[in-house]
Each structure stands twice: as C-alpha cells, then as structure tokens.
Automatic annotation (TrEMBL):
The lineage of its organism: Bacteria, Bacillati, Bacillota, Negativicutes, Selenomonadales. It comes from the Bacteria. One of its GO terms (molecular function) is chitin binding. The keyword Ion transport does not apply. It comes from Dendrosporobacter quercicolus. Residues 1-23 form the signal peptide. Keywords: Signal. Residues 165-481 form the GH18 domain. The keyword Metal-binding does not apply. InterPro entries: Chitinase_II/V-like_cat, Chitinase_insertion_sf, Cu_amine_oxidase-like_N, GH, Glyco_hydro18_cat. This is Copper amine oxidase N-terminal domain-containing protein.
Length: 481
C-alpha cells in the first residue's frame, strides 16, 4: 500500500444497488483521501455496492491496496500472493505454516467487461478496515496498523456444537452467483450445509475458491453449521501430482486453513474421487496431515467415500479403516448404483443396494462416525434398440422434474417392493424411457436405515433437487429416535 494513503473513499453518486446479482449497477466514483485532501484516481474505474457487497475493481486493488495481485482471466479469479502476511491464524503452530506466505484466490465478476471482486470480509487479509456511511453513501477503506510484525488474527478457534439426534447434512452445489440464504426459510431439522466451494485445480496445489462470507453468516443465523467441501476435481493425474509433492500438499493445507479462518467455517468436507489405487496410502497420509491442521482450529473434518466394491479408482483407492480413525465423520455415497455413464438402465439407489452398501461399509467404519448418502435426484434412461443391441442415454432429474414427466405423460408408476421405490416407463418416437423415482416413500425407507444401524446421520445430494416434503421425512427419521 502506498505510504501516503490514509483511506480510499468510494463515493456513491447514485442510489444503492438493490439487485443481488448486480444486474443494473449504479455508477460511482473513487477518490483517494490523503494528508493533502481528496485526490481523484488516475485509473478510470468505478466501484459498486449493494446491501452486502463491496465490488472493487481488481485494477484498483492492485494499484492502491496490494500490488501482488494477478488476474487469472481464463478461470475468472484473482490470485493474491501474500508473501509477508499481515494476518495470523488461531494458534502459533498454525502460524508457522503461513510465515513463508500463502497464495489465495477470489472469484472475479466481469462488469462492463472489467474484473471486480467482492471485497466484503477481506479487509483483514489486506490489512485495512472497511465501513459504510449511509448518510454520505460512502464506503471508506482505511489502512490498518497491522503488519507482518504486528499481525491481526483472522479468527479464534471454533467451539464445537452438539447435535440433537442424528446429523442432517445437505450438499449445496454452487456454480454461479453466491446463493442468498437470507431469502430462504429455515429448513426443519437441517443441521449442516456443505457448499461445494473449494477444488484443487493445479499440480502445485492451488485451491480454487468460491467461498462467500454472507452465506456463512446467513447459515449461522439460521442455526446451520457450514462444512465447506473441497474436491480433487476428480482428476487422477492432478491428484497424484499433489499427493506425491510435499510442498503441494502443504500448499493445499495452508489455503484451507486461511479460508476456514477467514470465513468462519465450522468444518471441511473432503470429496476426493477418481484416484489411482496406488495412491491409496498417500491419500490417507494427506487426510491425516490436513485433519491434524484443521483440528488446531477445532474444525470438524469429514470425508466422502463410495460403497465398497472392486471398482478401481473409485472404491479400491480408499483405506476405509484408516480414514475412519482419522476424521470425525465419513459420508458413504449410497447412491449412483447406476451411475451417469452406466451401460444399463437402473435405479440410483434401490433399498437393498443401499443397505448392502451400509453393511459392507460398517465393517470398516464405526457406526457413530458414518453418515449415509441420500439422493434427492434420479435419472431418466433413454433406451434405443438397434440390431438387437440396447444403448442407453441418461438424464439427471430433480424430484420435481421427474414428477413433471410423470404428469405430462399421464403415467401411473408402480411400486417395486424389492427396490423400495416407484417405477415408470413410456415410449416415444421408438425409444423407451425408464425412471426409478425418488419420493417421500423411497426416501423414508432409506432414511430409516440410519436408525436401524445407529448411524451418525444422513448426507443428501443435492440441495434444490428435493421436494419440500422431504425435509419433514428426514427430520422424522433422524431427529425423533
């Protein structure tokens, strides 16, 4: 930061933006307030503010706040190299990991062709303080007194919250704009949201982030915990490169520690899939390293695994017994019985298959640590028969989409007791379409297995694909025992 900078004032000349998506941003000028008074920026840039975002141009951040900012235009993110961090983590042991610096990244939003990032909540990282004066419609960014030698703590260790009954978790698949939880009603019986925010994207261990502070604040206001998901991008070669490189593993851990502290996360959910079987032990060691670091923050650590099977790279890559000893919770993905690229049609999670998968998993994982997977989705299978050969083409559906197909084609689903779900089919233009439905009845039967086997709870994929009545079903199965 330039020495003579006392504050950056973002003067809002128009009314505040009410649209969360910033579809119609108000123009605003930026000036620098120094000892000599106000000086206009020499950059022709504007800032945008709505109820909870301070959208600053990347160019302004680089020029006036912190110059070690690089724009990764191809992936729509700004990468910031904090070589001498002015912040510290929860304990001295964790601080030792970041003394040498850490690279973080933040989603970029293009507005009128120019890159912006949401600066809300990032002030501690950059060593500044931010306040908004409504009377003058001014956002002030003041340089703080902290430095590498007089740093500011990002957070304090979280206190673990006890759950009433079994854990009810749902994964929240985040793609584009941050989700505004404040607009949604509180879900009855829901304990944990797991937004898909983090993914390892490069061999040096860069973790792409889509984290959003307001999401966490709104979740906490509604009584939810937030266990953010980190994936390996489901890339075997990328995963191998990271697991075989001690520096890259440490890089991943450093970033997750900072993000966890910065955003006030309650936990991290590890979702590593499609891994070379030969890297099984290295995966276990990485999970041990990451868990030990996160425990310094008192974070809850969980990992997702598939049901035991002979499948190379998808099942044999997990040392279930070892992983179960390391982490707090294990989510077994008791769905995708017939996966997206399955050569034959079939249910996503028939009752017998789910129970068989749970029994097999419990041979390695203690029941008090195991959450069963619950599908909020199904698939429509398009079958084409040609020369005696049947080829299938699946389409993933939410519960509502599946019911819409049933209604549009005046179908009458039949109950399959051996599958624990309704089934329907129809023909159109010489093709057969099959759907094994997921609904209140099928979900109730599966969720009751959590009680039968005294599991820690259930984890559902994915938020937004369910029908509203499903939440009462899960609450009844998980909270009333």
């Amino acid at each position: 930061m330039k020495k003579n900078l006392l504050m950056v004032a973002v003067l809002l000349l128009c009314s505040l933006i009410s649209s969360i998506a910033l579809a119609n941003p108000a123009e605003s000028n930026i000036v620098i307030i120094t000892n000599d008074g106000q000086q206009p920026l020499h950059l022709a840039e504007q800032a945008l503010v709505d109820q909870y975002r301070v959208m600053l141009p990347v160019a302004v951040i680089k020029e006036y706040l912190y110059n070690a900012v690089e724009l990764d235009a191809a992936n729509n993110r700004a990468v910031v190299n904090f070589g001498l961090p002015k912040f510290r983590l929860e304990t001295e042991k964790l601080d030792e990991l970041i003394y040498s610096g850490v690279k973080l990244n933040f989603p970029v939003k293009k507005i009128d062709g120019k890159p912006y990032i949401n600066f809300y909540g990032l002030d501690k990282l950059f060593g500044v303080t931010v306040d908004y004066q409504e009377s003058s419609r001014t956002v002030r960014i003041r340089p703080g007194q902290n430095s590498f030698f007089a740093p500011l703590k990002l957070n304090k260790p979280r206190s673990r919250q006890a759950f009433t009954g079994k854990i009810n978790l749902v994964w929240d698949h985040i793609t584009g704009e941050p989700r505004d939880l404040a607009l949604a009603a509180k879900v009855p019986g829901l304990d944990v949201l797991s937004p898909t925010w983090f993914a390892i994207v490069s061999p040096d261990g860069l973790v792409a982030s889509k984290a959003d502070l307001k999401y966490v604040q709104d979740a906490h206001d509604k009584g939810y915990q937030v266990w953010a998901l980190v994936s390996n991008s489901f890339d075997r070669d990328l995963t191998r490169a990271v697991l075989h490189n001690e520096w890259a593993r440490r890089n991943v851990i450093k970033q997750l520690l900072v993000y966890s502290s910065l955003y006030g996360l309650d936990g991290i959910n590890i979702d590593f899939e499609n891994i070379y079987d030969e890297d099984r032990d290295r995966l276990t060691e990485f999970v041990r390293e990451l868990t030990a670091a996160l425990k310094e923050q008192n974070s809850i650590v969980s990992i997702d695994i598939t049901v035991p099977s002979p499948a190379s790279s998808w099942s044999q890559c997990y040392d279930r017994a070892a992983l179960g000893q390391i982490v707090d919770y294990v989510m077994v993905m008791t769905y995708d019985e017939h996966w997206r690229t399955s050569p034959v049609s079939g249910p996503v999670a028939s009752l017998g298959w789910v129970e068989q998968g749970l029994v097999a998993t419990l041979r390695s994982i203690p029941s008090e640590k195991l959450l069963m997977g619950v599908p909020f989705y199904t698939r429509e299978w398009e079958e084409t028969s040609e020369n005696g050969k049947v080829t299938v083409k699946p389409r993933t559906l939410s519960m509502t989409q599946a019911q819409q197909i049933v209604q549009a084609n005046a179908l009458e689903p039949v109950w399959l007791a051996d599958k624990g779900q309704y089934y329907t089919e129809y023909t159109k233009e010489g093709k057969t379409y099959r759907i094994w439905l997921e609904d209140e009845k099928s979900i109730a039967l599966k969720a009751n297995l959590a009680g039968k086997y005294q599991l820690a709870g259930a984890a559902s994929w994915r938020k937004g694909f369910e029908q509203p009545a499903i939440w009462d079903i899960l609450k009844s199965a998980l909270k009333h025992r």
